[in-house]
């Protein structure tokens, strides 16, 4: 039987721990705050997922070494931009033999590294032991056990199989794959596209406009992902178009909701002030744009979302800029 250590007690760390428990995997969660850890040990993470009664297979601690004790699977679910600092603080506690799962959907600011690359850099984990789990997996829907599928991607097919075994619950169906780059780029980039779709919704636009942004956003994602070495087919799969649809269309998505508020005229600072949870696209827009520039990839939607976030461009200006670009072939 697998024993897991889950680092991060937010929405997805908690929902994924419940998936693991429902798949028969015991979990110890690590969190920074006593009150959240105490609530989990009392059977419910009131702050992040109050609707989810937690299995007795799940317990929590604030001690990273205690969380790691006896684990053969480590799951990382902290905000992307904090991963390196976290691993520098407690990465040495991670068991040498364990598979390491990244649930995070972001690209590191400054280095433009994907999360699996940060894990190798900061904690010395060999890429063959790293798996990425990504797909249309809104935590609040998984928490109430609505059926969903996901991709478990690892450069080592047997690591992907071990992780898929550990998280295959009656309502959670993992598919295995080996395209780590494509899976990670798809997961990080869809958050930025969801900001754009939310912004269109906030401006009062309808489904044609939103579908156009989703589809052209997918084209940007594929151009970037394949330029980095990802496989085109990944972007047609669960981690690609599947997650893009869920995140861009759902009011449960934090990135989508953040974008709606921007479209309604709030500033980034005003939205941040009322957003309790992580909207990864807000931070990763700049790093994904940098990555695209480094590889000579044209990403106009991402560029405009980044301008909204970093330069305070209005949603209306962004729409005008995108629509006034020179016409081109759809497949260029
Ligand atoms: N929520 C979802 O539906 C969902 C689904 C799939 C993937 N993800 C991804 O999972 C990752 C985690 O997201 P989440 O939804 O759990 O976020 P969240 O905002 O719900 O929770 C983040 C957790 O990290 C903690 N945290 C904040 N700053 C920290 C720091 N400096 N060091 C350590 N911990 C810190 C918070 O206290 C909280 O426990 C993100 O990359 C997100 O894109 C989320
Ligand atoms: O709530 P969001 O926008 O972080 O999206 C959550 C998940 O990534 C959906 O798969």
Describe it.
- With 332 residues, this protein is α/β, with parallel strands linked by helices.
- It folds into two domains: 3-178, NAD(P)-binding Rossmann-like Domain (Rossmann fold, 3-Layer(aba) Sandwich), CATH 3.40.50; 181-323, Orthogonal Bundle (N-(1-d-carboxylethyl)-l-norvaline Dehydrogenase, domain 2), CATH 1.10.1040.10.
- Helices cover 52% and strands 12% of the residues.
- The protein is built from 16 helices and eight strands.
- It has helices spanning 11-22, 34-41, 64-68, 83-90, 115-123, 139-143, 157-167, 180-202, 207-227, 232-235, 238-249, 254-263, 268-274, 280-294, 300-311, 315-323; strands spanning 3-7, 26-30, 58-61, 73-76, 99-102, 130-134, 148-153, 172-177.
- Strands 3-2-1-4-5-6-7-8 form an eight-stranded mixed beta sheet, with helices on both faces.
- Strand 2, helix 2 (34-41) and strand 3 (58-61) form a beta-alpha-beta unit.
- Helix 4 packs parallel to helix 5 and helix 15 packs antiparallel against helix 16.
- It is globular, with a radius of gyration of 19 Å.
- It starts with a strand and ends in a 9-residue tail after the last helix.
- The mean pLDDT is 97.
- Bound molecules: nicotinamide-adenine-dinucleotide and SN-glycerol-3-phosphate.
- Residues 105, 136-138, 191, 194, 243, 246-247, 253-256, 280 line the site of SN-glycerol-3-phosphate (G3P).
């Amino acid at each position: 039987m697998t024993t897991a250590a889950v680092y991060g007690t937010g929405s997805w760390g908690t929902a994924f721990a419940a998936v693991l428990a429902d798949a028969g995997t015991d979990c110890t969660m690590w969190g920074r705050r006593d009150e959240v850890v105490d609530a989990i040990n009392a059977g419910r993470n009131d702050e992040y997922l109050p609707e989810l009664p937690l299995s007795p297979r799940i317990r929590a601690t604030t001690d990273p070494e205690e969380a790691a004790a006896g684990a053969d699977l480590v799951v990382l679910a902290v905000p992307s931009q904090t991963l390196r600092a976290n691993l520098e603080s407690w990465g040495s506690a991670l068991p040498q033999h364990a598979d390491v799962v990244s649930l995070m959907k972001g690209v590191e600011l400054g280095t433009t590294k994907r999360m699996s690359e940060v894990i190798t850099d900061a904690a010395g984990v060999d890429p063959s032991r790293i798996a990425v789990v990504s797909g249309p997996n809104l935590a609040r829907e998984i928490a109430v056990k609505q059926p969903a599928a996901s991709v478990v991607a690892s450069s080592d097919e047997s690591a992907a199989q071990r992780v898929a075994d550990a998280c295959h619950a009656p309502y959670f169906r993992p598919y295995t794959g080996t395209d780590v780059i494509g899976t990670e780029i798809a997961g990080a980039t869809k958050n930025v596209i969801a900001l754009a779709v939310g912004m269109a919704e906030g401006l009062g636009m309808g489904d044609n406009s939103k579908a156009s942004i989703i589809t052209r956003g997918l084209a940007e994602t594929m151009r970037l992902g394949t330029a980095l070495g990802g496989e085109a087919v990944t972007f047609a799969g669960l981690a690609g178009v599947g997650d893009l649809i869920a995140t861009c269309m759902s009011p449960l998505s934090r990135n989508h909701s953040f974008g709606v508020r921007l479209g309604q005229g709030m500033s980034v600072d005003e939205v941040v002030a009322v957003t309790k949870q992580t909207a990864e696209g807000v931070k990763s827009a700049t790093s994904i744009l940098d990555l695209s520039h480094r590889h000579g990839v044209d990403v106009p939607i991402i560029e405009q979302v980044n301008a909204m976030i970093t330069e305070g461009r209005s949603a209306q200006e962004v729409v005008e800029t995108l629509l006034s670009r020179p016409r081109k072939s759809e497949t260029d």
